[in-house]
Amino acid sequence: MAPGISIGGMASGLNSQAIIAALMDVERLPILRLQSHKQRLNQQNEIFSKLNGKLDSLETTLLKMDTVGEMASYSASSSDEAKVKVTAGGNATSGSWAVNVTQLAQTMTRNTNGVADSNVTNMGTGSFGIVANGQTYNIDLSSNPQNTLADIRNAINDSGAPVSATIINEGTGATPYRLVVTSDTSGSAGSFTFDLTNFTVANSAFNLNQAGSVLQAAQNSIFTVNGLSLSRGTNAVSDAIEGLTLDLRTIGTATITAAPDNAGVKKKAKEFIDAYNAIVDVMSPQNAVDSSGQSKAVLFGDSGLRGINNRLRMSLQTASGGTSSYRTLASVGIKTGTDGKLSLDDSDFDAALSADFAGVLNVFTDSSSGVAKSLKTAVDEMTNPVDGIFSSRKDGIARRIKTIDSRISDLEKRMTRIEERMVMKYAGLEKLVSSFQAQGATLQSFYR
Length: 448
Hints:
Layout: H1 16-27, H2 29-63, H3 68-71, E1 74-78, E2 84-88, E3 95-103, E4 109-111, E5 124-132, E6 135-140, H4 149-157, E7 163-169, E8 177-183, E9 192-195, E10 199-201, E11 214-216, E12 221-225, E13 228-232, E14 236-237, E15 244-248, E16 252-260, H5 262-283, H6 303-316, E17 334-336, E18 342-344, H7 346-355, H8 357-365, H9 371-382, H10 389-446
Antiparallel strand pairs: 1-16, 2-15, 3-12, 3-16, 4-8, 4-11, 5-6, 5-9, 5-10, 7-8, 12-13, 14-15, 17-18
Helix pairs in contact: 1-10, 2-5, 2-9, 2-10, 6-9, 7-8
């Protein structure tokens, strides 16, 4: 309402403000329609964003099952886990192996003799080297004429040498404190020595360069697999038997067995089904109609949504290469229902795995036409941030919303002008009626 103008209706008896408000409600109908359209566009954008996120989740699942090593699952056991423990990866093979451990890998550890304290007794000054893997790491303490065990520990740990230094308190005796230096690498490759040529030793306890300083020598693990002699720098051996990781625990023999794990493969298949069905859960409500055949869904009949659905369903129908009788999802017990969702028939899936384990895996992992490959290609194209359908639809919606906002802004300005004119008209009406009333009163006074 225009400032400073009163249209209370005292003269005319009309509720001018209510009349103007009602007229303005009519004038604002185009704005309300635009706001409703904007709200619908925002709802569409929200659904596309949610669907994009579900497709990203599906792709994450597919990336975990697009190779045999990822999709396959094997179980492995040991006849004596106290000696050798085993875990299986997806690229394992069925079989049995005798593993005989004759030596465990060790990490080299050297130590000083004991001293009375860690931060008072002077051990010496100068510089010394730690020789490891053919490289010498210099420890320079020459700037300080006196260096304690703590000073030397800190300098070693700051040097970048592939060792770790600490101080151990034995807890008894007059000289319980020892500097202990341990290699960061197990096996013979972790062997190291000290070069104290340029270090002036002030306390005979600092004897790291002597043979007697070795608490534990560096050594590789030594073992046989079905009689074949092997050696590694660690007790966690992942490259001896393909797909199996051996944890060598103590000297002795154990029999290792590996076999396909159907339950593990089925678990991955169900994770894929769940990720796909989550996409269907977003799209299905947009195709729903009521008993009269009408729908209030904001994307009902949307061509983009229909295109996404068709692309996904086509990708599910691909057939893997090879001669196996199991080449499609349907052949291994994964069917598409009338609601568009996938379901797994446990008995059919188990039977397929038992009959042709590799063939079932190939349905998912075939590098040219496996389900994982086909779906991933489809998802990549649809979610491409440059020219994918989601990018183009979101950009289009954003442009339409911007246009609507501009039109609403223009209409709001127009509403302001219309309201001001109405106020002026009704104010003029009140003034005119008031003038007529004054004239009437004057005329009546002449006839009294």
